[in-house]
Amino acid sequence: MQTLRRIFIRTAFAVLALAAAPAEAAETKDVQAGLKDVGVAALPVFLDAATESITLKFPKAMGGGTLKFGGTMDAEALTQKKFIFTTSDDHKLSWNNAFGMSFLDLTEVALNLSIEKGAYSVSLDGKIGGAFRKGHQPREVVINLAVEDKKLTDFTLSLPDTSLSLHAIPELKNLPGASKFVIKSPTVSLDAIGGKVDFLHEEVDAMAFYDEAKKDWNFGLRFEKPLTLATLTGHDGGFLKHLGLPKMRMIVSTKGVDRAYDDLPLAAQNFFTAVDGKLPGGNLKLEDGVNVIAHFDPSLAPASIKKGLNGLGLGSASLEIDGTVEGMFGGAPAVALAVDIDIPKTSGFKVLKTKSAKAEFFVELSKTAVGLGYRTAVTMSQGKNKP
After folding, report:
1. Which pTM was predicted?
2. How remote is the C-alpha of 229 from its chain's centroid?
3. pLDDT digit string (tens) for 206-224?
4. 349-376 burial by CB neighbour count: b if 16+ within 10 A, else e?
5. What are 87-104's pLDDT values in tens digits?
6. CA 317 → CA 229, 296, 338, 374, distances in Å?
7. What does each C-alpha distance from 217 to 44, 96, 202, 228, 260 come to in angstroms?
8. Nearest CA among 362, 348, 351, 222 for reference residue 292
9. Which of 93, 168, 338, 356 is the most exposed place for a label (fewest CB within 10 A)?
10. 295 pairs with which residues across the strands?
């Protein structure tokens, strides 16, 4: 009887051992073998795998450099042809100047990687300090990495219920008005910081973006409601208090910008994209100081201005104008906005009907002049063959 019992126990143990074998095999620490199990024959350029670790490699545009993470794979997910890698606590990293952005210092950084059917989901979690601290303590964050065509292209770090003063970031504190701007619920992405700002009693979209060519930051606000130039400058005299400019974008720059719109950081491109989803053509050109890009719609002007514009043949066209505004953060108010236009057919000035005539619509306020309308320079003849 005891012999039969021993045979039964040994047989039961053998069955249990066989049943456990597949699970033990799936719990292998060999990362490379796990990747092969889910059909990943060749890793994309931003990943490298060793026996017990995965290295994340960033392109030059994202600061370059590498981060090597040790961790574990999800054994159960492997049986479902899904690769899930999680960083172990003793392999979390510190990463200063993350993504090449000098104000992003991260600690306790961990990699979370998921691969299924050739699709990659990559994120980092950790803690961020510096200007992003909560009180005097680092703040916990999750950073999602964008993967397109098996390449890392961007990242997103969102900080809800957080306020970020531009003046707290050394690279941005020299921007005009930096001490007045506080971004609520900021989202940091490659070379850009976006969020909301309370400005002139209105909550507006805000975007700080880095210009690689000038090695400098710029800051912009986007207004949904028409805003008057008098409100911007604090100059209530004359026609400016009646001149509402819809779809206004105000951009502050210390070195100016001359860069193609489609070459801007992705978040900045979204900031400048029109309602139809299209970017403006050509280059974004900014002067040092406060720049304004806006629509001028004569139909929104008061009757007195409409009458004057109609007399110049400018009563119907809606124009996108740009230029500079002074006096917002101290000093005398000044406005200089302009856009090239065709010579109005009903201008009443015969000399402007020459083929060589070119005109510019302008809005101007300075110590010496206040006005709006058009100005032109033409080539004229004095006597024979004397242009």
Report:
1. 0.82
2. 26
3. 999 999 889 999 999 999 8
4. eeebeeeebebebbbbbeeeeeebebee
5. 999 999 999 999 999 899
6. 20, 9, 14, 13
7. 32, 20, 24, 26, 16
8. 222
9. 356
10. 320
